[in-house]
Specification:
Blueprint lengths: L9 H11 L23 H12 L12 H7 L2 E3 L4 H6 L10 H22 L7 H26 L21 H18 L12 H14 L3 H14 L23 E5 L10 H6 L4 E3 L1 H6 L31 E3 L4 E2 L5 E2 L11 E3 L20 E5 H16 L3 H12 L12 H15 L6 H8 L2 H4 L25 H6 L10
Antiparallel strand pairs: 1-3, 2-8, 4-7, 5-6
């Protein structure tokens, strides 16, 4: 069985989570029938309950399998569902669009409020200094994750580092640089205080904070610093590529997996996910032809030039990750018992494809009673290797360490090594290709394309099922708008340009 923070009952997590976003200023007296700030924090077990409540914020919208929405926006998938994310993907996004526009904002600030409440109060707990610092490091890591997600999608945002009242929350946004500086400050505290161990029980470790720091620095073009943070993870000896790409994304292969650096943890029956219902029954996620065509043949050449490519059989002689990520809509599959299983989709695929990655064939046939427990991986070692390669290449060109990092990822699935003698520009394109293939359907590509500033050239080339041409206006669409509900409440908040 996977270890989570299993000793904490879900009902208690919920109670602490709700409590963590309440302001004690609003209370005239201590209620006798619920946890309060004045009567809490009396033992290490209570602090652990509060910590579990902060982690529980990761079950909200932008940190689970709904990350697939970002792949829809990036053009790797389409969706058959009439949801706001489709309008966003087609350039029809405004401050009242709802859905993802407001969900990211609200969920991240709920997480930040929980973090700030913990940081404001945890020192009252009678625990050792080392235990307290470790807990504070975990919460600083989580706050950094929440703020980085906000900065990625909205730019500068209101910055709160302590609990605030409603009136105190009405402030102008800080600059993106100021938000990122706080993110780095939190991560540096986490790096200094988290245990330098492997990731096994759902608690962030030093490697988790270093990997997130590498991602943040990569997104701010601090190449040498990003490469250094990634390299520290690589040199720690606690993480490595696992030997099975397919089961990396299934509960059966995730226990103590050396590739997983941080994840959102699920465990039936108390904490389950509906990913199999959404992806393998409702057909939410339809990989696009553009993604399928980007997988190389087994000789390392693109399908446009490989003699191994057979247009009549797109599955033949392809990068093994293709069939561990995508299947044709009508294809049957084989479960772990060797039994061939079909599907009873209640919708059609707009592209003719459906996902394999993250989907558990042992859950078939799927119905409303299906409970899934695949952890959603937020940071993993293959990503660290590719972040190192990208940062090192941008900083100093394609040296041997860049080749080694990329080839290690390719070698896991027996793909040939990159050709020698690549220029910096050529290596950049190979790394970007490798990230698309290796990290497909993990909700990462949108952030990559924002960083690379490739949205305005790629997105308008896409036509969605039904014939709608996608649009991307670089003057506005690199940022989401602040939700209108927020600008109505906070008159100090200045709307992002173009909205």
């Amino acid at each position: 069985m996977k270890k989570y923070i299993e000793t904490i009952k879900i009902c208690v997590i919920g109670a602490v989570s709700v409590f963590a976003v309440s302001c004690s200023d609003f209370l005239d007296k201590n209620p006798l029938d619920q946890i309060t700030s004045e009567t809490f924090w009396t033992s290490e077990s209570e602090a652990n309950m509060a910590l579990a409540g902060v982690y529980a914020r990761l079950y909200s919208y932008p940190f689970g399998h709904t990350d697939g929405d970002f792949d829809c926006m990036a053009g790797d998938i389409s969706s058959n569902q009439s949801r706001a994310v489709i309008n966003i993907a087609q350039g029809m996004v405004e401050d009242n669009s709802g859905g993802l526009v407001s969900d990211i904002y609200n969920a991240c600030y709920a997480g930040i409020a929980s973090c700030n409440f913990f940081l404001d109060n945890a020192a009252r707990t009678p625990v050792s200094e080392a235990t307290l610092n470790r807990m504070l490091g975990e919460v600083c890591f989580l706050r950094a994750m929440f703020y980085f997600k906000l900065a990625q999608h909205y730019g500068g945002v209101p910055l709160y580092t302590k609990s605030v009242t409603i009136d105190e929350a009405k402030v102008k946004q800080s600059s993106k640089a100021e938000v990122i500086a706080q993110v780095i400050k939190d991560l540096d505290y986490a790096i200094a205080n988290l245990p330098n161990t492997s990731y096994t029980d759902g608690h962030a470790v030093k490697g988790s904070a270093l990997a997130l720091k590498a991602r943040v620095l990569l997104n701010t073009s601090q190449w040498s610093e990003a490469a250094d943070a990634a390299n520290q993870v690589m040199q720690s000896g606690y993480f490595s590529l696992c030997d099975n790409y397919r089961t990396l994304f299934l509960a059966s292969g995730q226990t103590n997996n050396p590739e997983i650096i941080f994840s959102v943890r699920y465990l039936n029956p108390d904490r389950s996910t509906d990913i199999d219902i959404h992806w393998a029954w409702w057909a939410y996620v339809n990989p696009r032809q553009e993604l399928v065509d980007d997988y190389e043949c087994t000789d390392g050449l693109p399908i446009s030039s490989s003699p191994l490519y057979d247009p009549s059989n797109w599955r033949l002689n392809r990068d093994p990750r293709l069939l561990m990520t995508i299947k044709h809509f009508d294809d049957k599959v084989v479960n772990s018992s060797g039994q061939e299983m079909g599907f009873a989709y209640n919708a059609n695929s707009g592209t003719g494809y459906e996902p394999v990655k993250h989907c558990n064939w042992d859950a078939l046939p799927i119905d409303y009673s299906t409970k899934s427990e695949q952890d959603w991986i937020l940071l993993r070692y293959a990503d660290v290797l590719l972040m190192y390669a990208e940062a090192k290449n941008e900083a100093s060109g394609p040296d041997a360490s860049v080749y080694s990092a990329v080839n290690e990822v390719r070698g896991r699935v027996n793909m040939p090594a990159l050709p020698e003698g690549l220029t910096k520009d050529q290596m950049r394109e190979r790394i970007r290709h490798e990230r698309r293939i290796e990290l497909a359907l993990e909700g990462i590509r949108w952030g990559d394309m924002l960083r690379w500033k490739t949205m305005e050239t790629y997105i308008p080339t896409l036509v969605d099922p039904g014939g709608t041409q996608r649009r991307f206006d670089p003057a506005k669409h690199y940022l989401l708008p602040f939700p209108r509900t927020e600008t109505d409440i906070n008159d100090q908040l200045e709307q992002n340009p173009g909205y």
